[in-house]
């Protein structure tokens, strides 16, 4: 029998798609560009070029890259670039997203079980604070951490290791909760534990280590952690 993982002392939560339901933004982007795939293409560009910045040792915040990705999306679809004011209207929606239906229950279970919880997101700190306040989740988290200070995007190992260092926890005692295979893979490669929330349309990366925990909802993940 394999040795069960140590009970984590710190839980790090990804925010976009993991905690927050991005359907409202998805519908707005798809409608704006008259394509049912526009949002997925835009979000993929946002992630891709955040990693381009990290690999090439440049840095623009997530909002700047999101703006540029809207221009790239328009160009790839053969459409005119949107005015700055329209792009701003679309990007503002990222701070006005509700939590997934299972999130409050899952966070409540974990909070009542005594887990330390913080966020760790690629969004800028100012956006993150608006997101968590809008979703009514502020009271669950000890700190709201962004990659802003490190200026390297997840899944660069420095993002996870710096968060652990700031909170006085060794990587093996920290667990990242995310709905993205690239994020759980990054955390595991950095020596953390990871829980994959299998949101619809998401998948783990087969060439990365398997997540420590996997479940369809945050409540399911919480049940596994609390029962550990």
Automatic annotation (TrEMBL):
Entry-linked Gene3D superfamilies: HAD superfamily/HAD-like, Putative phosphatase, domain 2
Keywords: Hydrolase
Any Pfam family hit: Hydrolase
Superkingdom to which the source organism belongs: Bacteria
UniProt cross-references to SUPFAM superfamilies, sorted A to Z: HAD-like
Family, as annotated: Belongs to the HAD-like hydrolase superfamily. S-2-haloalkanoic acid dehalogenase family.
The protein's name: Haloacid dehalogenase type II
